[in-house]
Specification:
The protein is built from 41 helices and 4 strands. By secondary structure, the chain is an all-alpha fold. Strands 1-2 form a two-stranded antiparallel ribbon. A hairpin with a 5-residue loop joins strand 3 and strand 4. Helix 16 runs antiparallel to helix 17. This is MFS transporter.
Length: 910
């Protein structure tokens, strides 16, 4: 029986907290060998594999007994079974203190493992007191009893050092006995057991309870728990040994620091239950697996010494993760694993209210087996490879497989639901569809793809479409701002490298400033087509999370002048991940808004996203002057002028902001299912002349903005060495971003082609002014012209994008006249999004060619004039192309833009 909507049963709170305390003590006993095993290993001279077997044996017993104990809890009542488990485990733990040989200890460990079986008993017992809409939080609180592992790691080393490992077993056994007595005193039987006693009915037979386990999906579901719980237990057992072996800590310190992982991996399970109740288990599991892939990858890389045959002899440098970064990373891993544990068990009482014990027991058993198998595998890998980080390589492979399997299963279920006309009925975990007991309602998914999206329908737009579109817009804008910040961070970092001891030539510095533009522009070509394939929500989450790689890399690389130039080249290329995000972000947002508001929406997304450049150029010079992260961030560097800098902050400052962005994107954004299409469907844009013409024009606007953002700090430092131009570098990108965000409505009102023509005219004047004031050696006049160029490029960024939907609609109507109007409109929307993404990719090469042009011009002629004259001729060609192809008497947009200027403007901005 499952409790419906309403209040918890009487005594629910006392049952919950008593069970949580009891489970905490059980878990402390269950993991006792992670500490006393270290003393036994030293005494008996055990190998790594033997140690892993000893530590994992209690986990094996606790796992295998969970199914039968869960069924007994359903049959005889969780209260009495839970107490019996604690008493039996206490006896076995006490007898452990009298074991002398390795064989006797293994037998004793089998008995100690009974304590772990209390989990399935508690799940069955607690769930019966709460309605289904509150079971996620309740089971999350109960599951937080995993913190017992931290209790053992924190206290047991002190007892073992003072009194011996035998005393630890005796004290922990006594605690179990006391807890069992208190548990019986403060709790009562669950409502189902009480009702059964009143009616005289019998519990279901064990064969009936086990029948549900024939469902293959139950076993698949259990595999998720193999990682989120099994890997947690394995690491809880293995970390003290790992910390002692890798960082040479004593047993007390290693135990206390291992608790640093166990505590968040346990307590935050409560929050995971709350998130699963609110957002759905599927969303929580996606985030859990995604972050776990990233953290286990970082932890997998072993300490490595590189020797490069350089021009002046061998160059040696070393990469390794220090103790503090290791603890921070393991904390993050533990936190997200705790959310995943709660998400997995959120579904069991909903899908199987009458078989909670059996199904919960099986899932817990598979997870517990992970806690047994993985420590053995860790020890074996150490013996075979001799590499400590091999344990994290195994976890990386495991969670990557879990994430890939879950994602493709979900996508398959979504496609099947769409074909069947029931896209809104896909459950939280689609691979569990059809699973469960008769007459049990599978909860509908609360977040995810949107099947019905009609922004051109005024009623639909007013009744909810606008709110959804705006929410996606603002989240996308925040993530895009971070992308631009990481993409352009080299423009400030590079200018500082010589001052902190890096001996790079001028040409090498310009290459570092230019390479993010090269890689970012190249990635945009691919990113432009990925949103319709993967969905905007998933792709925004993954692409934002990928920014952590260059952010961490920069933080580590700049701390030592011995870091080779090759590493900086790689990091500069990785910064291009931020540049690639622009194409996918703009393509995604273009689907959400009607044509009359599309220009303004894209201007806001891009313009405010561009603020990331200005934010970075303002924030990084500030944060590198202070020890922002204390000992966590590493030591500072002494600059050539004697000041102390913390250049690593240029990368580390973005890490928490990126994490927030990835999480918010997953929980707050949507996919528009009608926008889904293959690459082949989108590839038609390459055969359209206007695609290539717009590439040329957008390069004249956005290429100018991003290229000047990347090149101006170093250019000004070289041509005006007496001026500290870094103080003013953020002003140009700031004005360019604001002008783009603030003027999108102008193009919507008067037409993007007409605005673009005047933009190029102003840019021509600005370039002539830059040449004049550069020859006059006037920094003030030169800087004023640079600002004018930024403002004009910002306006042009918005106006050129505004042109695309109109151009593509005219082109589709001309070439696909036989299609129904609705199909032509959807095809135009798809191609517009693809064109917007593609032209942004081509234009982004400006971040490469403008800094490189400046560098080559200065290297060959001693001045930047040659580069500036080249830019001037390019802007003249852009103005001529805009006039003849789009805004002039024979332009394809002339009639459309004349109609725009004769109609009242929209009063509701995007």
């Amino acid at each position: 029986m499952i409790r419906g909507s309403g209040q918890p049963a009487p005594g629910a709170s006392r049952a919950l907290w008593s069970s949580t305390i009891a489970f905490t003590v059980c878990f402390a006993v269950w993991t006792i060998f992670s500490i006393i095993g270290i003393g036994v290993k030293e005494r008996l001279g055990l190998s790594e594999t033997e140690f892993g077997l000893l530590v994992g044996t209690p986990i094996l017993t606790g796992s295998l007994t969970r199914v039968i104990l869960g069924i007994w809890a359903d049959q005889f009542g969780g209260r009495r079974v839970f107490a019996g488990v604690m008493i039996a485990a206490a006896i076995a733990t006490f007898l452990t203190s009298y074991a002398d040989t390795y064989g006797e200890l293994l037998v004793a460990a089998l008995g100690v493992g009974i304590a772990g079986g209390g989990f399935s008993v508690g799940v069955s017992y607690v769930s019966k007191f709460f309605p289904k809409e509150k079971q996620g939080l309740a089971l999350g609180i109960f599951g937080a009893g995993n913190v017992g592992a931290a209790v053992t790691k924190f206290l047991a080393p002190f007892v073992m050092v003072a009194m011996g490992w035998q005393a630890v077993a005796q004290v922990w056994a006594a605690a179990l006995i006391v807890t069992s007595v208190l548990f019986l005193a403060f709790t009562k039987e669950d409502p189902e057991q009480v009702e059964r006693a009143k009616s005289g009915s019998k519990a279901a037979a064990m064969s009936s309870q086990l029948a549900v386990l024939r469902n293959l999906q139950v076993w698949r579901f259990a595999l998720y728990y193999f990682f989120v719980f099994g890997a947690f237990v394995a690491l809880a057992l293995w970390l003290p040994r790992y910390l002692m072996g890798v960082y040479h800590l004593d047993v007390k310190t290693a135990g206390m620091l291992a608790a640093f992982y166990s505590v968040p991996a346990s307590l935050f399970r409560i929050y995971g239950g709350k998130l699963a109740d609110r957002y759905g288990a599927r969303s929580v599991l996606y985030v859990t697996f995604g972050i776990s892939v990233l953290t286990t990858f970082m932890l997998s890389y072993p300490p490595t010494t590189y020797i490069i045959d350089g021009v002046r002899g061998p160059i040696t440098f070393r990469t390794e993760m220090g103790l503090v970064p290791f603890l921070v990373t393991i904390f993050v891993l533990g936190f997200f694993m705790s959310l995943g544990k709660a998400a997995v068990f959120k579904h069991i009482p909903v899908y199987y209210p009458n078989h909670v014990g059996a199904v919960g027991g099986l899932v817990g058993m598979v997870g517990g087996l992970g806690g047994f198998v993985l420590p053995l595998a860790f020890g074996a890998l150490n013996d075979l490879t001799g590499v400590w980080t091999s344990c994290f390589v195994l976890l990386f492979v495991l969670v990557s497989v879990a994430l890939a399997w879950m994602h493709f299963a979900i996508r398959q279920m979504e496609r099947s639901a769409i074909r069947a006309g029931r896209a809104g009925q896909v459950p939280e975990l689609p691979e569990m569809r059809g699973l469960g007991e008769p007459d049990i309602e599978i909860p509908a998914r609360r977040a995810g793809p949107i099947a019905d999206w009609r922004p051109e329908d005024e009623e639909f737009w007013r009744s909810g479409g606008r709110a959804v579109a705006r929410r996606n817009l603002w989240i996308s804008t925040y993530c895009l701002m971070l992308s631009f910040a990481v993409w352009m961070v080299w423009s400030v970092v590079v200018a500082r490298l010589p001052a902190i001891g890096f001996d790079f030539t001028t040409d090498q510095l310009f290459w570092l400033a230019a390479l993010p533009g090269l890689s970012g522009a190249t990635l945009r070509i691919f990113y432009a087509f990925l949103v319709p394939i993967f969905g905007g929500r998933l792709w925004t989450t993954l692409s934002t999370g990928s920014l952590l790689i260059p952010a961490f890399g920069i933080g580590y690389a700049v701390q030592s002048p011995d870091t080779p130039y090759l590493i900086f080249l790689v990091l500069a290329l990785l910064c291009g991940l931020g540049g690639g995000n622009f194409a996918s972000s703009m393509a995604n947002i273009s689907f959400f808004f009607p044509k009359k508001e599309k220009g303004n929406a894209l201007a806001l997304n891009a313009g405010l996203g561009n603020l990331g450049v200005s934010l970075m150029q303002f924030l990084v010079p500030l944060v590198v002057t202070m020890s922002l992260f204390g000992f966590l961030g590493g030591h500072g560097q002494v600059a050539s002028d004697g000041t102390q800098l913390w250049m690593q902050n240029a990368g580390f400052i973005w890490v928490p902001l990126i994490m927030v962005g990835a999480i918010v994107a997953w929980f707050g954004m949507n996919d528009i299912l009608s926008a889904k299409s293959s690459f082949a469907d989108q590839a038609t844009i390459f055969g359209r002349l206007h695609t290539w013409l717009m590439c040329w024009l957008y390069t004249g606007t956005f290429g100018t903005f991003i290229g000047m953002s990347a090149g101006f700090p170093l250019l000004a430092k070289l041509v005006f060495p007496e001026v500290n131009a870094l103080k003013y570098a953020f002003v140009g990108p700031l004005l360019g971003a604001i002008s783009r965000a603030a003027t999108g409505w102008v193009s919507d009102r008067y037409g993007g082609a007409r605005v673009s023509f005047w933009v190029f005219t102003v840019q021509i004047a600005a370039i002539l002014g830059m040449i004049w004031f550069l020859d006059a050696q006037s920094f003030g006049g030169f800087f004023a012209m640079v600002l004018l160029l930024f403002v004009a490029s910002g306006v042009g960024n918005a106006s050129t994008f505004q042109m695309v939907p109109g151009i593509m609609r005219r082109e589709i109507d001309r070439t696909e006249a036989a299609l129904p109007e609705a199909d032509r409109r959807m095809q135009a929307e798809r191609e517009s999004a693809a064109v917007i993404g593609f032209i942004s990719a081509i234009a982004a090469y400006g971040a490469f060619y403008i800094p490189k042009a400046y560098g080559s011009s200065i290297q060959l002629t001693g001045t930047a004039n040659v580069a500036l004259w080249g830019f001037l001729f390019f802007y003249v060609s852009c103005a001529a192309l805009t006039w003849f192809a789009y805004s002039g008497p024979r332009g394809v947009l002339r009639d459309l833009e004349r109609k725009l200027s004769s109609t009242p403007p929209s009063t509701v901005p995007a």
